[in-house]
């Protein structure tokens, strides 16, 4: 009765709401994004760490931005975009009517000083002095030492500190140290390099172009040259047994450019050292043995009067008619000028790359223990003589003197922007800015108490009018002479320990290092107002040294100092 049957053709009814799915080939793509990838080689003490930003993308391209659709209504107005109903006669008439007013306004703007000194900055402004690193030597807990000097290497990535004591009297039987930190690393804490010396270190200076060469002066009078990247860093030492070498603590070591030497010459930079024994000595490395045992030239500074000759006797006068001998100073008794500080003026031709360096043929400024300030010209032979000779320079004849301080001259510093400008800072609490050709231009007194003993001072290498001072009261004082010559712009009260040395970075305009009596080395970031040159300073920097009249006028406008 019932049976299965196949109907031909089969019956099919399509859906009125469901769509048919057809498979197709397609590609997949992740989101278009950018990622930061840090690229780095093996870590080294002298390596500068940098981060690169690299765009990473999978298949596909960034979304396409369509070109703007031209507006047909604006055709014919290409000469004056955005102006409809252009009429050349009307525009010409309008310009003729306002031309007189525009000329008057432009003439006033030429002579206006409304925006003088205003600089546009697109970065976030730094307004305060900030401490970014507080570095302590690992031997500080074991050895009672102070951080007595600091300096930066030529790349600005390494900062070094010398450790000794400034209050030692008598023989030095304790070790001194030099510690170096790579501040370009993310984690700056432990010293990367520690060098030990047989006596306290009193002063250090990095080579102007070789970032690993460091010269140091010791309390015993020894001069040492280190290569801080070597396993055995000591390269050269002076002979302490020789009478030609220093016998008193060394107060300053410097690298001086010999412009006559070839750039590849090992002695293109001559080492200069000054000591309390009154000697200024010059050293060169032996090209074969890579050392120096003896200085090849030098000068011995003597006072105007000495106990060894008849010139020290002067008649006082009196009823008895008997000549009386005046009381002699320590310098006159010892027949030597006790050198406390030294610097060399900058030459307009003294450039290595973009950096200005002192040259061997420039004028020397000497600060003494008695407060005297002298200028000396020292002729250094280009070729080392066969026999060492230490020439004498006597005050009053070969040495020109300036206004005297009433205490030891702790620091002499030359301006890198004005070849005739230098400063001297003393324990009398005064800083004198001087013209080497004339006399004192300006006297700064950062404090009025006995605690304002000034240990160190320096010119900024980026801003001609900025001077930093380190005081016995642990204060860091910074002047901007363009703003005020009477009141410092920034004063930082420290940790109660005196600031013994300070040094501006030679590559980063915002970094300053200070060394204090607690053995700490602090790295500071300066506010933009103290680190970036103003418009008038930029004009001064770009003005050639030969245009002395323009430079004098600029200095007078900025600081009221008349050169």
Averaged pLDDT, please?
Answer: 80
Strand fraction: 25-35%
Number of helices: 5
Radius of gyration: 35 Å
The proportion of residues forming helix, as a percent range, comes to under 10%
| Structural shape | globular
In terms of structural class, how would the helical and strand content be classed?
Answer: mainly beta
Distance between the termini: 133 Å
- The strand order across the widest sheet is 12-13-14-15-21
Number of strands: 33
The largest sheet, given as strand count, sense and whether it forms a barrel, is: 5 strands, mixed
Low-pLDDT parts are: 309-328
Oligomeric organization of the protein chains: single chain
Describe what this molecule looks like in 3D:
A hairpin with a 6-residue loop joins strand 23 (409-414) and strand 24. It is globular, with a radius of gyration of 35 Å. The protein is 9% helix and 31% strand. The chain has a 5-stranded mixed beta sheet with strand order 12-13-14-15-21, with no helix packed on it. Strands 3-33-32-31 form a 4-stranded antiparallel beta sheet, with no helix packed on it. By secondary structure, the protein is mainly β. The chain contains 5 helices and 33 strands.
The gist of it:
This protein is mostly beta strands and 563 residues long. The protein contains five helices and 33 strands. The strands form nine sheets. The chain has a five-stranded mixed beta sheet, with no helix packed on it. Strands 3-33-32-31 form a four-stranded antiparallel beta sheet, with no helix packed on it.
Which short descriptors sum up this protein?
33 strands, single chain, five-stranded mixed β-sheet, mainly beta, 563 residues
